[in-house]
Automatic annotation (TrEMBL), chain A:
Keyword terms of this UniProt record: Amino-acid biosynthesis, Aromatic amino acid biosynthesis, Lyase, Tryptophan biosynthesis
Function statement: The alpha subunit is responsible for the aldol cleavage of indoleglycerol phosphate to indole and glyceraldehyde 3-phosphate.
Keyword Amino-acid biosynthesis: yes
NCBIfam families, per database record: trpA (TIGR00262)
Protein name: Tryptophan synthase alpha chain
GO cellular component: cytosol
Enzyme active site: E49 (proton acceptor), D60 (proton acceptor)
EC number: 4.2.1.20
From TrEMBL, chain B:
Entry similarity comment: Belongs to the TrpB family.
Name of the featured protein: Tryptophan synthase beta chain
Organism of this sequence: Agromyces ramosus
Keyword Lyase listed: yes
InterPro entries per UniProt: Trp_synth_b_CS, Trp_synth_beta, Trp_synth_beta/beta-like, TrpB-like_PALP, TrpB-like_PALP_sf
Gene Ontology CC annotations of this record: cytoplasm
Classification lineage: Bacteria, Bacillati, Actinomycetota, Actinomycetes, Micrococcales
GO molecular function: tryptophan synthase activity
Claim: Lyase is one of the keywords in the record: yes
Origin superkingdom: Bacteria
CDD domains linked: Trp-synth_B
Length: 261, 402
């Protein structure tokens, strides 16, 4: 199984760390989202995070909301997510995580979802509205299938909750850089640095920072202390404005931030 | 265990906290502050005094015999939450949460609103307590409840029209949650109904249960016994749980929640969540939900903005699952007829939300017959709905259409 841990470790040995790129499935079309994801990997993205469009995306800012709403209007179905994973993993070596709100997984069936994701070649799940406290079904399904499970940690999380996120996660812990939702920001909060240090103290094998990262300089800055940098809205905006080519160009630019000067 | 003793986070299989980790600290802080406040006699006394001297509690009950003739001649008694300051039951909850906001030292409150009643109540409490206030409201609702938008702005609140998704209550909740995640250090979210993540379903219920506690004694004083049935409309379910709660362990009392049946539950345009939905996760809780096969939320429809919500509070899902309460749909047309009937027979103009409870009660009265006594939650008054009603019943002069 293609999981994310080894890739993140390798990129920390040979470079500053891993670059993780987010795109929603089905935006602007299913085919174009697959092409864009492949292009990200060809241009230096190490791990893909594919978002499943959802009707009520409470963690997403305007750019990702607009993209996923369009994908839903175009008729996105959950099965498209597995197809996208299959097509992307056929063409690249990058591990592919699915980022999904929890209700679609519940309705599909947690076990069935895990089986179909593993069969498609997926690496695991990032679950923005599932905290470990509510995740018994998913813990069992991911143990059974070997899928990664990425939980979030926030600057406001208590030490006990940080430890819980570290213990529950496999692959990496998603460190929320700042209080807020997705969307490019001009400066990534200092809170991220403290949070990553707290995660390390709690024994996290890997922490990746997301929310607000949009430039190569920010990627480089984050990789000074974290194992990976996650870029979402900036890539989606490039894809929306300039198509697959623009998304690939931005990925190449961001990847420069992973290489120490 | 007594049904009334049930607390969150879980009501049977329903409830929980399905939220981003960024909100957990805020929910914990609120829950802990609430748990302390519950035990603090000063908090209870302060809230009761606000109820008495600001809201106008206890609200009266009114027996409505001319209306009851259309309801099988059952004895019909209205619990008059419409007479509360700001015009609905929503103020009961808001004053409690505003007091808590002060206790946890936050200076800004946010809220979602559908009909605008919860937004008006929150803006009112913000004015009373000197808090900054932002209200999120779907664009469809800012149009059909324009009067309440003006009221909120006059009270000093910022009203944000939400243009995402279906542009109704569910999208206003999404936007309020995004605001909260971003501004949680300074901001408290005053949630308007018994849905959402723990501790909201339990806490909002506790602030609303005064409705049923008062009404239970008032009905006993008037009639010498318990009512045969208690009825309420159900959006998220706060006025319904508020009036049901005192009766949960009175097993001889039937409890009936009336959901918005829109254009009919056999069409796609309704908001009858328990009647037509199935369990799922939305807005932080596991509960009944209108959703498609993939778990995407289906847009709800109701002539009533306050009932136009595809989810429902987890305690109602539990009461439905264990058979303690029954939930039935009421169409737009039946609700509007009941609104006109109460107005013409009793001189009381109800909110369109509350008119769903009245329409359901007419049917129920015919089923139960003239020996029955039915206590109805009249959750709000119809002033905010005059434009909708005037258009529906063609009451504007044709020369001056609005
Ligand atoms: C008068 C009135 N009744 C009922 C409701 C529905 O809410 P709930 O089901 O939480 O009582 C509203 C909501 O805005 C309302 O304004």
């Amino acid at each position: 199984m293609r999981t994310v841990g080894p890739v993140i470790r390798r990129r920390n040995e040979e470079a500053g760390g891993a670059l993780i790129g987010y795109l929603p499935v089905g935006f602007p079309t299913l085919d174009a989202s697959v092409e864009a994801a492949v292009s990200l990997v060809e241009n230096g993205v190490d791990v893909l995070e594919l978002g499943l469009p959802y009707s009520d995306p409470v963690m997403d800012g305007p750019v990702i909301q607009a993209a996923t709403q369009q994908a839903l209007a175009n008729g996105f179905r959950l099965a498209d997510g597995f197809e996208a994973v299959r097509r992307i993993t056929d063409r690249t070596d990058a591990p592919v995580l699915i980022m999904t709100y929890w209700n679609p997984v519940v309705q599909y069936g947690v076990d069935r979802f895990a089986d179909d994701l593993a069969a498609a070649g997926g690496a695991g799940l990032i679950t923005p509205d599932l905290i470990p406290d509510e995740a018994a079904d998913w813990m069992a399904a991911s143990e059974r299938t070997g899928l990664d499970r990425v939980f979030l940690a926030a600057p406001t999380s208590t030490d006990a909750r940080i430890r819980q996120a570290v213990d529950a996660s496999r692959g990496f812990v998603y460190a929320v850089s700042t209080m807020g939702i997705t969307g490019a920001r001009s400066d990534v909060d200092v809170a991220a640095r403290t949070l990553v240090a707290r995660l390390a103290d709690a024994g996290a094998p890997a922490s990746c920072v997301g929310l607000g990262i949009s430039t190569a300089a920010q990627v480089a800055e984050v990789l000074e202390y974290a194992d990976g940098a996650i870029v979402g809205s900036a890539l989606v905006k490039a894809l929306a404005d300039g198509g697959v080519a623009a998304a690939g160009e931005l990925a190449a630019e961001l990847a420069r931030g992973t290489r120490p000067e | 265990m007594a049904l009334r003793a049930q607390t969150g986070p879980y009501f049977g299989d329903f409830g929980g906290r399905f939220v981003p980790e960024s909100l957990v600290a805020a929910l914990d802080e609120l829950g802990e502050a609430y748990d302390l406040a519950k035990l603090d006699p000063d908090f209870g006394a302060e809230l009761a005094e606000l109820g008495r001297s600001y809201t106008g509690r206890p609200s009266i009950i009114t027996e409505v015999p001319r209306f009851a003739r259309h309801a099988g001649d059952a004895r019909i008694i209205l619990k008059r939450e419409d007479l509360n300051h700001t015009g609905s039951h929503k103020i009961n909850n808001v004053l409690g949460q505003a007091l808590l906001t002060r206790r946890i030292g936050k200076s800004r409150v946010i809220a979602e609103t559908g009909a605008g009643q919860h937004g008006v109540a929150t803006a009112t409490a913000a004015a009373l307590f000197g808090l900054d206030c932002t209200i999120y409201m779907g664009e469809v609702d800012t149009e059909r409840q324009a009067l309440n938008v003006a009221r909120m702005r006059l009270l000093g609140a910022e009203v944000v029209a939400v243009t995402a998704g279906s542009r109704t209550l569910k999208d206003a909740i999404n936007e309020a949650m995004r605001d909260w995640v971003t501004n949680v250090a300074t901001t408290n979210y005053i949630f308007g109904t018994v849905a959402g993540p723990h501790p909201f379903p339990e806490m909002v219920r506790d602030f609303q249960k005064v409705i049923g506690e008062e009404a239970r004694q008032q009905v006993i004083d008037l009639t010498g016994g318990l009512p045969t049935a208690v009825t309420a409309c159900v959006g998220g379910g706060s006025n319904a749980i508020g009036i049901f709660h005192a009766f949960l362990d009175d097993t001889e009392v039937g409890l009936y929640g009336f959901e918005a049946g829109g254009e009919g539950v056999d069409t796609e345009r309704h908001a009858a969540t328990i009647t037509k939905g199935r369990p799922g996760v939305l807005h932080g809780a596991r509960s009944y939900l209108l959703q498609d096969e993939d778990g995407q939320t289906i847009e709800s429809h109701s002539i009533s903005a306050g009932l136009d919500y595809p989810g429902v509070g987890p305690e109602h899902s539990w009461l439905a699952a264990i058979g303690r309460a029954e939930y039935r749909p009421v169409t737009d047309a039946a609700a509007m007829e009941a609104l006109r009937l109460l107005t013409r027979t009793e001189g009381i103009i109800p909110a369109i939300e509350s008119a769903h409870a009245l329409a359901g009660t007419i049917e129920l009265g015919r089923e139960l017959g003239s020996d029955a006594t039915i206590l109805v939650s009249l959750s709000g008054r119809g002033d905010k709905d005059m434009d909708t009603a005037a258009k529906y019943f063609e009451l504007y002069d044709e020369e001056n259409p609005k």
